[in-house]
Amino acid sequence: MARAIMLQGTGSDVGKTVLVAGLCRAAKKRGLKVRPFKPQNMSNNAAVADIPGDNNHGGGEIGRAQWLQAIACGVAPTVHMNPVLLKPQTDVGAQVIVQGKVFGEARARDYQALKGRLMDAVLDSWAKVGEGADLVIVEGAGSPAEINLRSHDIANMGFATRANVPVVLVGDIDRGGVIASVAGTYLILPEEDRRMIVGYLINKFRGDVSLFDDGIKAIERFTAWRCFGVVPWLKAAARLPSEDSVVLERLASGEKRALKVAVPMLGRIANFDDLDPLKAEPQVEVVFVPPGKPLPGDAGLVVIPGSKSTIGDLIKFRENGWDRDLLAHRKRGGHVVGICGGFQMLGRIVRDPQGIEGSVTEAEGLGLLDIETVMEPEKTVRNVTARSVPFDLPLEGYEIHLGRTTGPDTLRPSAVINGADDGATSADGKVLGTYMHGLFSADAFRGKFLESLGVKGGGLDYRAEVERALDDVAAELEVHLDCDAIFGLAR
Question: For a tag site, which of 95, 97, 211, 237 has the least CB within 10 Å?
Fold first, then answer.
């Protein structure tokens, strides 16, 4: 079995995903065969990964964080890198994905009772990920300080103690109270869990690091834990795909550029990293519009992203008045792209006769495409190669969706995927829908698409930019962390 080390946070969104990705890349540069692992993830940003040994299946779902971390390792992602994925559908319930496949749905309270059964899948995947590897870097979820959930835990200390994996605790100084959060974690953990922690690091520091010297001494007095380093705010992290929708709450428009792209922040927004390649373009400003705010009137393009709850988000879309904003945008000659759930919303109607998404089984669509969608229980999960119909250029991406879409506008497909027509286009060509995630990652297509909107693309190689960002993050971690010590404590 490979040696392993685990990063757990004093809370959610402390930067574990980027730190694990950076450490994976640092280990790879040292010649180690390294793999990522996250026992349990909660995110509607999913990726399609291989299911080893299953040649008849198109692929399985994992969190996009582990997809990114696999890239950092230089290996293909597999479902065993994230054996349990929770995809929230309501405020109290989520779809449960186990080893890439839909396991069922569970309310938060019911899910706690499921965890004992899911630990077997987690440990099975854990053994598979370690095969042939020198090192596995594990990412926790939430915080081990959530001791009210400890008895059924599979994501933090419940996993670490079962798998005997040492833990580095991550504190986020940017949110304040980091000394209390680290020392408080020490205070409330049971002794069995406390023994698993071999030290801590501080993340997201701004300014003169020496100002925290006394903070390190204070934490040492309370915990006797060693500090592996203080990581500054990593600017390169902004060039990496984002996984957690928490980041959307902090996104704001920047300097004015040639094209403004407006993206409504749906309540169950999914796979919003589809917009990252556009954000990376120097002439493009991507604005995520929160509920209660109108879609900006000066946007040249509106992108309706994926959704884990198409009907629910469609109803909220109207309640926000975004349907009126979208119609006004169209009357001004604006362009619209709908991806996956956003594509379904652009039609005349969305039906869910079996109540797959919930109790509301039908909703009027936005009417910008002459199509209708019927939800069906069989989920399409696959990586695809495709070709853009409007520009006759290659595309590459993935599909994760429920539903079958038909109607006259599908006779003008937006793409051909694996030899079959996909999506739909309006008669004037200004409204485009597709089930394929990742279309903006295709550099040639993105350049031509922006050109059709009157904007010159920057000639960006997006995948190479992600690789450079991973290298830059790893280089920063090598400077500010004792990586030798962290890797050396793996067991």
Answer: 211
